[in-house]
Here is the input.
Amino acid sequence: MIIDKIKAGCKDSFRELFSDYYPILCCFAENFLNDRDLSKDVAQEALLKYWEQKENFSNINQVKSFLYTVTKNMSLNILKRAGKVSDLEYNCDISSDFDLQRSVIEHETLLMVRKAVSSLPDRMREIVELTMSGAQNSDIAERLGIAEGTVHSLKKRAYKKLKSVLGSHFCYLLMI
Here is the structure.
């Protein structure tokens, strides 16, 4: 289990967790801060705080809760120091528990989709990523130097694989 390896000081396992959660925490912080660079700093700091306290966690749910809480609190502190949030708003928590839970679910789902897409064979992954960025089959075919029919068939096979991996979460791929 990754948390046990991290707890034992395995830096490779921490790098893996870092690469999974860093982009998610960046997006999460950006929901508060509306500043990409500052959000990156907050996400990195949250992950480093976890590393410093790694011995206190025994499962991934505790780690995720810690990371989201630290990211949220650091973001709110930045807003408070900048005068963008009053003490009353800060103490009442400007983000409701429902909004926080929804945001966490969205970010976790994005992680799941991202991992599923990255597990595809290279050409299929490339086609799905280009599709997700808005490219049409004809544009993808031209860019990759393959026939448009090949793009269509590889995309169809990729979606079939993703549907089996993602199950009921497959529909989220189509929304990205």
